[in-house]
Design goal:
12 strands; globular; 4-stranded antiparallel β-sheet; D-amino Acid Aminotransferase, Chain A, domain 1; 30% helix; Dna Ligase, domain 1
C-alpha cells in the first residue's frame, strides 16, 4: 500500500527526521490559511500516489496566501497522470544548499533489503544510475545481521563531496530509515531529496513509503 507524501512525512517526524512546516489543505481557502500561517513562500504539492508529478505540473510554488489560493483553485479537482487531485500539501519553500538521496528498498531477486544512497538527490535515482553510477553507494542487508549505524557510516564515508559532519548526519538518517522500514513492514522508504538547509539541518523535502500489502493487518493506523 502506497502512502501519501504527507503520511510518509508524519511517520518520519515521529522518528526524529525533520520535514518542512505545513499541512494538508482540501480547498483553496484552507490552502491560503496555511500559507498565511507559514508566513513565507510556499509550495503546493498534489497528493497523488504516482511519481513524476512535478514534471506534470502537480507541484507549484506560491509567494503569498493569495497566490496559494489561486494555485490551489487550479490544482484541486484537476487530473495529473491519471490521478484526481483531492488534496494538497502546503509547505514552506525550503532554502536548499545541497540535495542528497536515501532509500531502503526490497531487492526481490536477492530477497533482502538494499540501502541506496547518493549525493545526487532531487532527480530519479534510475537517472543517476545511468548517468553517474559512481555517485550511488549500495549496501545489501543480511537479514540475519540487520543494519547498524556503523554500516551507515561506512556508506557515507565513501562520499568525498560532503563534509564529515554532514556524513555523520546522513548516516544517522539512513540508520533511522532502516528502523522505519522494519517497524512498518515497508517495501520502500525513500527520501528524495534529503535537503540540507543553510543552517546545516537535513530536511526530508519529499518522501515515499510503501507498506507490504500482506502486513497491513499489523498496522491498523
Amino acid at each position: 500500500m502506497k502512502l501519501f507524501e504527507f503520511e510518509a512525512k508524519d511517520i518520519l517526524r515521529q522518528y526524529g527526521i525533520a520535514a518542512p512546516r505545513g499541512r494538508v489543505a482540501g480547498d483553496p481557502d484552507e490552502a491560503g490559511r496555511v500559507a498565511e500561517e507559514i508566513g513565507k513562500p510556499v509550495v503546493l504539492k498534489s497528493q497523488i500516489l504516482v511519481s513524476g508529478r512535478g514534471k506534470s505540473g502537480g507541484i507549484v510554488f506560491a509567494n503569498d496566501a493569495g497566490e496559494a489560493r489561486r494555485v490551489a483553485s487550479k490544482l484541486l479537482g484537476s487530473t495529473i497522470k491519471g490521478s484526481l487531485v483531492n488534496s494538497l500539501l502546503v509547505e514552506e519553500k525550503l532554502d536548499i544548499v545541497e540535495q542528497l538521496y536515501a532509500s531502503i528498498i526490497i531487492d526481490r531477486q536477492a530477497r533482502r533489503y538494499v540501502v541506496l544512497t547518493s549525493t545526487s538527490g532531487g532527480v530519479d535515482i534510475e537517472e543517476v544510475a545511468l548517468t553517474s553510477p559512481e555517485r550511488i553507494v549500495r549496501y545489501w542487508i543480511d537479514p540475519a545481521v540487520g543494519f547498524s549505524r556503523h554500516a551507515a557510516e561506512a556508506m557515507t564515508a565513501q562520499f568525498s563531496d560532503i563534509s564529515q559532519d554532514d556524513a555523520d548526519k546522513f548516516a544517522s538518517i539512513i540508520d533511522t530509515l532502516y528502523k522505519v522500514a522494519i517497524d512498518y513492514d515497508a517495501e520502500l522508504v525513500e527520501i528524495n531529496p534529503l535537503a540540507r538547509a543553510p543552517s546545516g539541518e537535513f530536511v526530508a523535502a519529499d518522501a515515499r513509503i510503501i507498506v507490504d500489502d500482506n502486513a497491513i493487518f499489523r498496522h491498523p493506523e
